[in-house]
Amino acid sequence: MIFIYLEKEVTRFNALSFTLSYCARIKYIRQTSNFQRNSRLFESSTPNFSATATGKKMTTEGFRVLDEKSLIEYIKATPSLASKLGNEVENFKIKEVGDGNLNFVYIVISPSGSIVIKQAIPYVRCIGESWPMTKERSYFEATALKRQHGLSPKHVPEVYHFDRTMSVIGMRYIEPPHIILRKGLIAGVEYPLLAEHMSEFMANTLFYTSLLYLTTTQHKSAVAEFCANVELCRLTEQVVFSDPYKVSEFNRWTTPYLDSDAEAVRNDKVLKLEVAELKSTFCERTQALIHGDLHTGSVMVTHESTQVIDPEFAFYGPMGFDVGAFIGNLFLAYFAQDGHAEQGNERKAYKAWIIDTIADTWKLFYKKFTSLWDIHKEGPGEAYLHEIYNDVELWELVKQKYMINLFHDSLGFAAAKMIRRIVGVAHVEDFESITEAVKRADCERRALDFAKNLMKKRRSFNTITDVISTAL
């Protein structure tokens, strides 16, 4: 049996996936004042665990850390998992592929099928029991995966099993040749269906979890369920909307080339006013169930398939945060291309493909989202009651206003996500893989200047074509 290696990004802690070691990232969170007070993610007291960080024996309130041997027994006792492997219990082949930082992740293969098992443990794996961490994060990930798979089954892996006591998720194994989208963009690979697939995923998951489709009772119930994912929201609030705009020990950039650029961000009063408004929107607006970390490292692709993964940060928030995160990361990939150009391959055609994909993503999202709205305009959604907005002209005005506001939100969040990847704590491989510092800094500076302008002037743009023209 040949074991197929699942890319370690499938277990990454997305918000902190930067060049420093994972434990250095955890140190960052621990030393940050916002996470020292009133935090349930990293609690001040240590539970009485009996397991080691490699965990074999621990049992607390029905929980135990699974190893390869005990996982076999667990699968045998779980029909929803065993059936996916053809109940061939004597022929399971298991490989642990987690990166050792946070979760245990196993690929389980039998002659009849394959699955992925992901177990969250109640401490930081790379540090050990001395650092407790809520295993409830698996609940939000599993719940979001199930909801989003139900709404966009072609683009979200199916969850076969979730055990809240054991913090175990059993799901579809996204098989090769799927790779992380970010890696494909760095390599210069075109994905002809990417805009079609991502616009469909975003339109379906955002529309059907909003008040455009749900009753206020349904919506409030869903908001309440996900609002407990507060720690990961607080992490986003800090690393996206706060740290890049102040002196922070863990901020970094390509020094010395971007020293003045980073200082300019910290001294830009207009930029600070705009990011404060975006942070308020992020914290206060419960529009829809959002993925919460929808960058190009959270998408796996082939030429025919697009799969959205890792929704640990999911909660009810502003739709534009998902749309903006994806578009912003495509812009980062665009600005990084000159750093990956080689003699005889200046990547001009590939840059044009990225730009076309950005444009198509928004245009297709707009079309799909408003089409769903038209289909369900007489449905249960209580944001715009049909009895009030049944005039054709008024209905079109409602949609136009809603979508232009969503467009401007998306641009603002795209800009915030770009800025934090250049002068904040968590960077992206698109730039980090450019080995020549001067060239990397030049790419980053152009992206940073674009993002600053985009954030400050986002309300002046009426079309995605207008936005793109400022990037060329």
Layout of helices and strands, plus pairs?
Blueprint: H1 22-31, H2 68-76, H3 79-82, E1 93-96, E2 103-110, E3 113-120, E4 123-124, E5 128-132, H4 137-151, E6 159-163, E7 168-172, E8 179-180, H5 181-187, H6 194-207, H7 216-226, H8 230-241, H9 259-267, H10 269-284, E9 288-290, E10 299-301, E11 306-308, E12 315-317, H11 319-340, H12 348-375, H13 392-423, H14 429-432, H15 437-457, H16 464-471
Antiparallel strand pairs: 1-2, 2-3, 3-7, 4-5, 6-7, 8-10, 9-12, 10-11
Helix pairs in contact: 5-11, 6-12, 11-12, 11-13, 11-15, 13-15
Compact summary:
With 472 residues, this protein is an alpha+beta fold. Helix content is 47%, strand content 11%. The strands form 4 sheets. Strands 1-2-3-7-6 form a 5-stranded antiparallel beta sheet, with helices on one face.
* Rg, Å, rounded: 22 Å
Task: Determine the fraction of residues in helical runs and give it as a percent range.
Answer: 40-55%
The beta-strand count equals 12
Quaternary structure: single chain
